[in-house]
Amino acid sequence: MFVPDKGAAFSEMHRVLEEGGIVLFNVWDRIEENPHTLANAQVVEGLFPGDAEMRFRLPYEMYDRALLWDLLAQAQFEDVKIEDKQVPITGASPRTIATGQIRGTPRSLLIQRRGMPLEDVIEKVTAALTKVGGDPYQGVTKSIVVQARWH
Q1: Which residue, among 151, 108, 150, has the nearest Cα to 13 in the 3D structure?
Q2: Of the candidates 43, 24, 25, the residue with the CA atom closest to the CA atom of residue 35
């Protein structure tokens, strides 16, 4: 999800595998399919409008199945399987989720460098999460699981 040249990354995966080897990975589905992340992104991006470093979307931009198929085909993978995976989030504290989303990422340093107290951001994210999923939080997280074979 994070490499700038995805085609080169898939070609390198193919290069290092032995014939018959399997590449198995997962990526996040669209941010709109992950409500807790979308709520966090909207809060953080709203606090720092136009600030590219605070944009929260990059990990959720590899959801396009056609792109995944194309990248794998270009790298000469076969027997491709792409499956959706959904995991429920139940009984979690919105504040605990918010704390992890803010303090558990490098974004916390960026927020601090901009002079905003982390606790203020955590409170705003907690409120957004509570609005989206209640307290305790009830929601889902969705990803895409990809498997392909080198022939």
Answers
A1: 150
A2: 43
Q: Within 10 Å of residue 22's Cβ, how many Cβ atoms?
A: 11
The helix/strand/coil state of 4 is coil
Q: Are the CB atoms for 59 and 130 separated by under 8 Å?
A: no
Contact 40, 94 (CB under 8 A): no
pLDDT value at residue 151: 82
Banded pLDDT at 106 (limits 50, 70, 90):
confident
pTM of the model as a whole:
0.86
Q: Residue 87, by phi and psi: left (phi above 0), alpha (psi -120 to 50) or beta?
A: beta
**Two tokens at 15?**
């290069």
Dist. CA 121–CA 147, nearest whole Å: 38
Question: pLDDT at position 58, please?
Answer: 84
Q: What is the DSSP letter of 75?
A: T
What domains lie within the chain, and their CATH numbers?
A: 6-150 (3.40.50.150)
Q: How crowded is residue 24: how many other Cβ atoms within 10 Å of its Cβ? A: 10
